[in-house]
Amino acid sequence: MRIIVIGAGHAGIEAAFAISRLGAKAVLITTHLETIGQMSCNPSIGGIAKGHLVKEIDAFGGIMPQAADATGIHFLTLNKSKGPAVRATRTQNDKVKYRSYMKSFLEKCDNLTLYQSIVSKILIKKGKVTGVRLLEGNTISADAVIITSGTFFNGKIYIGDEVIEGGRSNEPASTHLAENIKEIGFKTIRLKTGTPMRLHFDSIDFKHFEPQPGDKLPNPFSLFTDNQPENKIICYLGYTNQNVRNILEDNIKFSPLYSGKIEGIGPRYCPSIEDKVIKFPHRERHHFYLEPEGVDNKEVYVNGLSTSLPVNVQRKILEQIPGLDKSIMMRPAYAIEYDAILPTQLEKTLESKEVPGLYFAGQVNGTSGYEEAASQGMMAGINAVQKAKSEDPFVLKRSEAYIGVMIDDLIKKGVDEPYRMFTSRAEYRLQLREDNAFERLGSHSNKLGLISDKIFAMVRRRSKKRYKIIDELRTRKINYKNKSHSLFHLLKMPENDFAAIKRIYGGEIGDDMNLSDISFIEAEVKYEGYIKIQNENIKRLDNLDKTAIPKGLEYEKIDGLSTEVIQKLKVKQPETLKDALGISGVTPASINAISIYLTINHR
Questions:
Q1: What is the pLDDT of residues 565-576, one digit of tens each?
Q2: Mean pLDDT of the chain
Q3: Domains by residue range for the chain, with CATH
């Protein structure tokens, strides 16, 4: 059994690794072996909601979390002062070491072959994928193919008036395969993203900027990381000013984003600096971060100054910011426009609806980040093997994982801009936390064979220790404000966190706990009532999910459905009542009508 993965970015890496661990042969094809795991934009892993995805990848034994820990140079827990559900881990990574780690790791994997070439065509026989043709003319046969092409499909780089064909800086675009995908019949959308300039570390006067140190005791991403991570660099916060605004307003006509050269839609949550100035005219300044790209690397990533303006305008901008006025630009900022397929053409497994055996994962599906891409790659790899083995597909529910939320959003709602994961997208985010990823997903991982029984048992022991401490909180009592309270009840109080409970109690509660353990305990106690209510809602939705809608159901025969609802159901063709409920305009009353109709006809 052989499965080909096209593209060795973050999606391709996790896809190939998952395939190899499940016992199938993986062939990972990339344009340049040296750029496996390249961090094309910010060399950073995690962040709000993205950190949740990385923790979920870790529960399935993926590479990204371990690589992030091994090459991390700045570790920070975001939203530390907020509730456990929205706390998130973020690392700044050494981009050279991260890339080296990934290549070295994959080269040692059983069942995994790395191959440098360019795929020009997907081979299809009798409607099913049979392999790929390479630009050199040779072919490789396969039981399935996973496309993880990132921003390479018909990629174009924009710097002012200059337009360069490329998937990223100094790498060729994928034009043959991009056109082949369209010939097969896939609908595509043009999207845009960008990256800021890189500056020489020694040319920056850092005293003008606010230091942003990492956590005193860094929290690792991976359950399998044995060594305590260390912070090796400091990031810095800075701001633009009115002079920068004036330069941007005077030169906006040179931005391909506003001149009409770029047709693609960019990410609203990560706009270019010229976009910020135009869309937020009331803001006098905009913040940015100076983030070193490595320990032995002098490049500094200017997070927040993404732009597609000409290089001379980029220099003028830097000259107006104290501390950057004498900085040396090592790489200019640029925008990139590329083809993505409309993800509504995919099944829940990320397999194409039209071409069996052909899967898509990552930015080619309209998502934006490394973490979203890696999650999809892992799921596509798992499902390609499951299908090749004639086993059940593996699909995560929205109530189980952020991965489930993301894939459900993509295949049902589609995209009209690059999709980014946010905690607000998850209706059950109280349950979907970083700190309980293994509790949620470990049994799935073990059942699939992605983590061994030995490792599963080892991590479960840590999980049991957490629950044991919660039980202790229920039984231990103390007099507090002239009343007897259990420590459990005290922790439920909004003003108390775990550290406060320890101070009030005065005794030892739980040894050898990290931030993730504490976050888990706080969440399980404080959210107890809310989680119980949400679990009841999940059960009700699960019943809907188990009720299949027959293909070709004649909705016109069902009493109580409006014309609008009938039309939407016929277009979307939902597979279950839960899928139907997720369609805009389909009401609970409509679901009830369909349910009654199906029950009567079944009898």
A1: 898 899 889 999
A2: 92
A3: 2-192+337-434 (3.50.50.60), 198-335 (2.40.30.260), 452-532 (1.10.10.1800), 546-602 (1.10.150.570)
List pLDDT tens digits, range 454-495. Answer: 999 988 998 999 999 999 999 999 888 888 999 999 999 988
Closest CA to 30 of 105, 133, 116: 116
**Residue 397 in tokens:** 């529910």
Q: Would you say residue 49 has pLDDT above 70?
A: yes
Token reading at 5 = 């993965």
CB 31 within 8 A of CB 166: no
- What is the chain's Cα-based Rg? 25
Given a contact cutoff of 8 angstroms between Cβ atoms, the answer to whether 36 and 103 are in contact is yes
Look up residue 68 and give its amino acid. Answer: A
CA distances from residue 112 to 116, 203, 221, 446 in whole angstroms, order as listed: 13, 43, 25, 21
Contact 4, 27 (CB under 8 A): yes
Neighbours of 364 (CB within 10 A): 30
How many helices and strands in the chain, by DSSP H and E?
20, 23
What confidence score (pLDDT) does residue 602 get? 67
3-state SS, one letter per residue, for 282-337 = CCCCCEEEEEECCCCCCEEEEECCCCCCCHHHHHHHHHCCCCCCCCCEEECCEEEE
Question: For residues 567 and 21, what is the distance between their CA atoms, to the nearest angstrom?
Answer: 44
State how far the Cα of 207 lies from the Cα of 214, in Å rounded to an integer. Answer: 18
As a whole number of angstroms, the distance between CA 12 and CA 6 comes to: 7
Which residues are paired to 376 by β-bridges? none
Q: Smallest Cα–Cα separation from 310: which of 260, 264, 251?
A: 251
Q: Is 45 helix (H, G, I), strand (E, B) or coil?
A: strand
Write down the H helix ranges in 327-401.
370-388
pLDDT of 441? 97
Length of the chain: 603
Residues 233-292 have pLDDT tens digits of: 999 999 999 999 999 999 999 988 777 777 777 777 678 999 888 888 888 899 999 999
DSSP β-bridge partners for residue 237: 210, 289
Listed residue (206, 159, 166, 208) closest to 331, CA to CA: 159
Percent of the chain with pLDDT over 90: 72
Q: How far is CA 403 from CA 22, 36, 162, 348, 512, in A?
A: 20, 23, 38, 11, 30
- The bridge status of strand 72-78 relative to strand 88-93 is antiparallel
Query: Can you read off the two tokens belonging to residue 129?
Result: 């994928």
Average pLDDT rounded to a whole number, residues 189-196:
93
Contacts of 206 (CB under 8 A, 6+ apart): 236, 290, 323
Question: Could you tell me if 58 and 198 are in contact, meaning their C-beta atoms sit under 8 angstroms apart?
Answer: no
Calpha distance 451→447 (Å, rounded): 8
Does residue 9 sit in helix, strand or coil? coil
Instruction: Order across the sheet with 156-159: list the strands.
Output: 162-165, 156-159, 334-341, 188-195
Phi-psi region of 323 (alpha: psi -120 to 50; beta: other; left: phi over 0): left
Task: Determine the pLDDT at residue 603.
Answer: 58
Average pLDDT over residues 530-537: 83
Residue 46's identity, in one-letter code, is: G
| 69-78, 301-310, 512-521: range with lowest mean pLDDT | 512-521
At 451 the pLDDT is 93
Beta bridge partner(s), residue 4: 27, 145
CB atoms within 10 A of CB 217: 12
Three-class secondary structure of residue 273 per DSSP: helix
